[in-house]
Amino acid sequence: MNTQKSKFDRNWKTIRGQSVEWFSLLGEHDLKKIDRAQDKQDKFLTMLQVKYGYTRQQATEEVNKRWAAFYRAKSKVGA
Question: Residues with Cβ < 8 Å from 59, sequence gap 6 or more?
Fold first, then answer.
């Protein structure tokens, strides 16, 4: 999990930039709370659970699914 967490933190700026598009219920005030959090991944997943009623597993799967789609689209543009 530490590897995942560090990967999340390394990509936080990109994830943050996409978050409003991916999750319309997240506002700038929510993202600022995550910016200040020591464990950004945990705070982000908790926010998704609260805002969308996801289980922890569902929140994790949604983030992974959207990140993978974003990364694939980004790779195609660069190809």
Answer: 45, 48, 49, 52
